[in-house]
Amino acid sequence: MKLESLAGGRWFRFALLVVLCASIGCRGPEDEEVETESVVSVVAEAARVGTVRAVIHATGLVSPAPGAELIVTAPEAGRIVEMPKAEGDRVRSGDVLVRFEIPSLAAEAERSRAAVRAAEARAQIAETAHGRAQELFDRGVAARREVEDADRELSEARAALEQARAGFEASQTLASRATVHATFDGIVARRTHNPGDLVEASAGDPVLRVIDPGRLEVQASVPIADLSRIVIGARAHITVASDAEPLALQVVSRPAAVEPGTAAAPVRLAFVASTQLAAGTPVQVDIDAEEHAGVVLVPAAAVLYEGGEASVFIAAGDKAQRRIVQTGLSDASFVELRSGVLAGELVITRGQNGLPDGASIALGETTPARDTAPAGE
Fold first, then answer.
1. How far apart (Å, rounded) are the C-alpha atoms in residues 258 and 223?
2. What is the predicted pLDDT for the residue at 35?
3. In CATH, what is the architecture of 72-98+181-211?
C-alpha cells in the first residue's frame, strides 16, 4: 500500500513537469548576436613630393635700430632748467631737448677761463722780456746767458698758454653737455622729469627717451640650440592679427658669442617695409631655417604622435592601414616623411584618431598627389 503511494507521487510530479513545459515552451540556449563592424568615414590626401623649410619659433620685441634711440641723462648732478618737448612730441635734429644747470661744470669753465687769461699775461711778459734781452745782447750790454734764460721763459710761457687753452676747450665741451640737442628726427617716447627737478648723473635716472619710429627692428630671443640654424639674410615674419597680412622680416645679425649658462640669445631682424608697430610691442617671430627639396610630404594633420613614435594611417582600399613613419622637417602645413610612405599613397587626414589598424573605412574627400612645393614656396 505504501509502495503504491510513492509510485503515484512520482507519477504526479512527472505529469506536472510535462504540463508546465508544454505551457511555457521548452527552448534551448538563445543564438548569440554577432555585431557587424561599423564603417568609419574618413578624409584622405595623397602624399606628395615637394619642398619644406623648417621654421624656428621665437619671441621678440619691437625695438629701435642702432642709432635710432637717444636716452638723455644728466652729465653731472644738477637741475633741469628747460625741457620744451612733451611725451609724444615730434623733434627735429638739432632741437633743444633738455637744458641742465650744473654748478660744477660752470665753475670749471670759469677756472679754465681764468687760467687762460693768466697764461696769456705770462706769455706776453715773456715775449717782452725776451725782446729786451735780445736787444741788450745785440748792443753788447747783456750776456748770452740772459738771452738764453729769456728764451727758456718764453718757451715755457707759450707751452703753459697752450695747456690752459686746451683745458678751457675741454671745460667748454663739458659745459656744452649741459644742453642736449636731438641728433636725429624722431619722437619723444618717454619723459620722466620736469623743469626744476634735481637729477643724478646715472643711467638709472633717465630724463628723456627719443626714438626714430621709422627705424625699428625686432630683437628675437632664439634658443641656443637653434642659433646654428639661422643665417644672415634669412626670411622671417610676424603675424600681428589673424585677419592681417604677416609682416616680412630679414635676419640682419646673430650673436658671435653667448653668455655661459643662458638658454637663449638675441637675433636682430629688420622690417622689409615700414611698420606701424610701436616700440616695445611683444611679437611672435617665425624664422626660416634649413630647406629640404624633393622629399615626401604629408599634411601635418595626418601624423599621429604617441609615446615618442610617429605614425600615419593609409587608406588601402576600404581598410585603414597603420604605418610607423620617420619624420623630418616640418612647417605649419606639412611634415617630411623619410620612411614609411610613398608619394601618391593616400594618408588619412581626418577621422583617424582612435582608429584601429585594419578598420573598415569609407573615403570622403581626397586630394591627388602634386609634385609641387607647399604653399608659400
1. 11
2. 42
3. Beta Barrel (2.40)
Residues 6+ apart with CB under 8 A from 222: 56, 58, 230, 264, 265, 266, 267, 287
8 A C-beta contact, residue 74 and residue 208: no
- Top CATH class of 58-66+215-290 equals mainly beta
What is the identity of the amino acid at 189?
A
Q: What averages of pLDDT result for each successive group of 10 residues across the chain (377 residues)?
A: 42 44 46 57 94 92 95 91 95 95 79 89 90 84 84 91 88 81 95 94 92 95 92 92 84 89 92 92 93 95 93 94 94 92 95 91 72 44
Helix (H, G, I), strand (E, B) or coil at 86: coil
CA distance 274 to 216: 8
Between the alpha carbon of residue 245 and those of residues 155, 238, 242, 287, 334, the distances in Å are: 74, 9, 8, 16, 21
CATH class of 41-56+292-367: mainly beta
